[in-house]
Amino acid sequence: MVGDEEITVESHGRQQLRKLELLAGKNFSVRPVGEVGFIVHNSNRPPNRDADWILVDIDDTVSALSLAKEERDKKIHDLVNLPEDDEGVLLDLADELARFKGLDEESTSYHIKVHESLVALLKRCANEGKSTNEIRSLLQEHSQQWASGANPFIADREVEMIFKETTFKPKIYSEAVSALKNLSEEQQFSVHSPNIAFFTYGEADYQLYKALQLAEVCGINSIWLTKAPKGEFLKKFLAQEPSPYFGIETKVSAQDLPMVEGEEISDDVAVTGKNVSAYGINFKSSPRILMLFDDSPEELKSLQQEFPEGSTIIPVGIRVKRQGTKNYEKDVEVDGIELPVETIPSPIMETAAIERLPTSFDIKVAYATEAVRRYRDKRTPLEESKYNLSAYFLESKGYSVEEILNA
Length: 407
Description:
The protein is of the alpha/beta class.
């Protein structure tokens, strides 16, 4: 029995990888990260292997998912003919039963097609006049079939359109798109501009579908899809062998790697003397700043717990708090940088809490601030060229680097 289950898990994983490759299309390459997720590189905008990263969550950070769910639930309420006393209970049950740990998942995830199928079943049962207990039993049985790896999808055109018009395509926060687009446009001017990636948790194909709708307009270099807490995903990624670079196919000679005057080729390139990829991800040769914008305090905390001071990954957590979202009221203490709604009165802050995704200028100030501080931190030194560029940027915008370093 154990052997059969292992084959089923592996088979399911291969099917999912193929599904993601088909969904991503020819302009994106999909790479598995063990059993915890996938990294999808944008071939039109390949990431610089030696740059830092700005990582941005999608749901309730870039897209208004909580608002889309409210709209979806209202439309389902109007469509499904249930007894008034049982209606809310059964609709909540359908949502709850769409959340389970799939065969190749590390933790419980929301499965949107399962939810759609459960609502279609709920509508059918209501039209047939089944009792609440009968409906509850059928919903539970249907969910268990999905969790075991089966695909008993129930199609219903009206239900499909509700999901398609709401949670499959939630409205976008325009200021978030503008900030990311402005940041991505600067990558052509400096090899030290950080890479930009969507970093999203949940059912991989659903998350990729939403990310692809935004990738080109936002100028995203990569899409990171995780089925585990984000800190755990990065820890598993770092443990991958044999290559720490996760390079993509564009190859250049070591002497042709993007460099600035006075910068030396990193030791790992010099030692091999072979052609290497200038594009991909490199967290092993020197410390890298990872600045994560996320509405979930638990995800920010998981990143900080997995990578404390002295790690090759330097996590900087910034919590995005939007009113009306599921995580807005959560009170979880997270270390990080605070970015107020309009401007940054001081680049050194204690806590992470903002009402919106900041402007590209705000993000650049926060990133440059972290870079100059880390350069002087002997536990996590950064390259001098990166410090010089960051210090110049801050001083040109009226910030005192000495005050930052002495804070």
